[in-house]
Amino acid sequence: AQSVTQLGSHVSVSEGALVLLRCNYSSSVPPYLFWYVQYPNQGLQLLLKYTSAATLVKGINGFEAEFKKSETSFHLTKPSAHMSDAAEYFCAVGEYGNKLVFGAGTILRVKS
Amino acid sequence: DTGVSQNPRHKITKRGQNVTFRCDPISEHNRLYWYRQTLGQGPEFLTYFQNEAQLEKSRLLSDRFSAERPKGSFSTLEIQRTEQGDSAMYLCASSRRESGELFFGEGSRLTVL
In chain A, what residues touch B40 (CB-CB under 8 Å)? Predict the structure, then answer.
């Protein structure tokens, strides 16, 4: 069975600071990995995905994530936080052609 | 590409009543998923369809829940005899089988009084 652990239910950073949101996964087969963002009262929007190509994946809004098989991690980073980045972020793991399993989410707060 | 559409966006009902949610996926997507999300939690998988066939159901989907996708296009999720524990956001998503990524609608929020 697949699972996702997101370390830290809440992360607070200052505007302009580095954003680091942590995700560890468990999968018995080579995984597909995703990061989604959710703004209040909205659905989930895809930020980026890893599907066994390059291990460093670039997404929208300046976010990127690095797949590290040895650490079973897929942490999300952004060099400089913006106020508009405040939202909830979800990491998800899936197999080819199958459903996604989501983590519990990390709420990002950006301080001015 | 009009995106995934869900209706109604909000539903308030009394315990014991039946409710139905509708999802219209992106037109060329053959897969359709239902998830449930409660406060402070990530989306939890309920069920999914490939075209009109329901391929998997979660153990979360009790006998009071039924989902259909009769013509392989839109889908409905019905909850019978609602309970307060059913209060949640119900999310629909669609995808092409090959891509893996899910495109989500804005969700249908259910409040059971």
Answer: 9, 104-105
